[in-house]
From TrEMBL:
Its main location: cytoplasm. This is Glutamine--fructose-6-phosphate aminotransferase [isomerizing]. It comes from Carboxydothermus pertinax. Catalyzes the first step in hexosamine metabolism, converting fructose-6P into glucosamine-6P using glutamine as a nitrogen source. GO terms for biological process: amino sugar biosynthetic process; carbohydrate metabolic process; fructose 6-phosphate metabolic process; protein N-linked glycosylation; UDP-N-acetylglucosamine metabolic process. It is found in: Cytoplasm. Homodimer. It catalyses: D-fructose 6-phosphate + L-glutamine = D-glucosamine 6-phosphate + L-glutamate. The chain holds residues 244 to 609 of 609 of the full protein. It is an enzyme of class 2 (transferase). GO terms for cellular component: cytosol. Its EC number is 2.6.1.16. Residues 40-182, 212-356 form the SIS domain. GO terms for molecular function: carbohydrate derivative binding; glutamine-fructose-6-phosphate transaminase (isomerizing) activity.
Amino acid sequence: EKGGYAHFMQKEIFEQPKALRDTLAGRLDLESLEVKLPEIEANLSYYQNLNRIFISACGTAYHAGLVGKYLLEKLVRIPVEIDVASEFRYRDPLIKEGDLLIVISQSGETADTLAALREAKKRGARVLAVTNVVGSSVSREADDVIYTWAGPEIAVASTKAYTTQLLVMYLLALYLGRAKGSIEEKLYKEMVQGLKEIPQKVQEVLDAEAKVIEFAKKHLTKEDAFFIGRGLDFAVSLEGQLKLKEISYIHAEAYAAGELKHGTLALIVKDVPVIALATQEALFEKMLSNIKEVNAREATILGIAFEGKKELAKVTDDQIYLPRVPELLAPILAVVPLQLLAYHMSVLRGNDVDKPRNLAKSVTVE
Ligand code: F6R
């Protein structure tokens, strides 16, 4: 049942190219390079006239939502608010008719996410669910549903659900951006072409697994790790640190790189592992100077950037280079080495990878 893999998590990490292909199928017209979302088309006028978008989800799904917020604001130019679902309902949110709540949930059964959905509906907003389970509570109660076609996810740590959730966020932002005329034609075409190629690019990142194992071995006995990035890279850093904590039991924190010097830099000492993401061109120089700050404290740094970014090697100990895609798509690639890092750390430390302590796959209590 694990198809030759040692653990479900490993199988699910390696299934990502297929999960992405399945989630794209029928939604990307490969001839005309247009995004199609019949799930939304039926109520397009509501979507075209949105005042505000809210996103609510838990854990990894929340991290996919953070990328979604960034994309929707950038490409659709509608303000987006995002909360973890366990906070949304209790803050008396200013959501009403004319607004949209997007809930993201692999299982479609997470109690807090379901409660957020009900709260938004009660206040008159429309709810769009992004979920992996047909017939789940979330899918039944939402007004509209876009399924991720990741297939069953068994390991407690979410991997292929996350990357397919990201993919749906891209499709949605491109679709709505097109419908509203808020996205430039050139960027639209570049991104659609990029999405078409993304399953293959993920495969290329998976093929670089050995590099990650090497880094994991070097840091096996460490008890703390830091993930830094800016913009989309910060959102991915949050997912990377959660994965590492959850299954390797290493204390990890993600920081917006520019925020480090406001306190956390005090914890960056000799040999502390720092994973630095630098995929965004406009922020690259700024990231390099943040990396230099941690390098000066003799941290051991793994840098992640697109191929060709040679400067990275001068300020980091190890590097993972991602194949080129339009840079807004970087999160789908950049998270893969972070998933592999958490996985291998967990295996090497002898943990129960698929069933980490204290955690359940589906959290149906609030
Ligand atoms: C982390 C993880 C959890 C879930 C969260 C939400 O690897 O799996 O953080 O993402 O419990 O679950 P769903 O998506 O089922 O609502």
